[in-house]
Amino acid sequence: MTELTRPERLAPGARVAVVAPSGPVPEERLQAGLDVLRGWDLDPVVAPHVLDRHGEFGYLAGRDADRAADLQNAWCDPSVDAVLCARGGYGAQRMIDLLDWDAMRAAGPKVFVGFSDITVLHEAFAGRLGLATLHGPMAAGVDFIKNASAQQHLRATLFAPETVRAIASGGRALVPGRARGVTLGGCLSLLAAELGTPHARPSAAGGLLCLEDVGEETYRLDRYLTQLLRAGWLEEVRGVLLGSWERCPDYAEVRPLLADRLGALGVPVVEEFGFGHCAGALTIPFGVTAELDADAGTLTLDEPALR
Q: Dihedral angle at the C-alpha atoms of 29, 33, 34, 35, nearest 10 degrees?
């Protein structure tokens, strides 16, 4: 697995577009997030359909074509320096094949931030654009607008990425050891759902795989991990970082399942690394070379996440 192209860091006054590729966005949360971004001396612009809600499927932020158009137009706008997702939910899979990837590739690299359902887009940006992205808090997310720690880590990553090359979460080793590789991953259920789709990543070989999820029963987490194992997707992975399992069963129940499914890989595994659906979530760059020290609970990037 090769390192991907890193976009340029942001500077004060940078124009950032907020889009909603997945679920509907509460207006009051969006406004709170925009206030945070303005407080960073950014110039946020809201895509036209961010506050839409699908007339039939209320779990979608408007029609698939509109959500795709918002993302593509924001990405291809030369005045936009970064595209930030407003929230996750569900829906990215429905719109991803409506995007003009040739046009987006021609627009050049820029910063992309999101997590949860946005995992589908992280994978696509890696595979179709060769671009490093940021798995981090979203503009209208509760854990972003109400958590100073999450805000500070994302802000440092965007403006001064050399200050957060060493990411320490207080996590501990589920399987001890050190490993080097290229970071990737996201929401476990979405990674499993991507298998067999056009342009899906063939495997996590050579990677440091970040996994987290929300609202899943233990047997479903088992099913997703087992699917990845049976598909050979985890063969030759270099290491695994486990984030949050918010609204899943108690971690005392989830932990043995993670040890059972991942322990036999023979690679370092760090747990409770502090990214995903949790308060104070860390921003984890995807597509960059890094070293995982499971015993110390650290991820050290070879270079800053952004140029």
A: 100
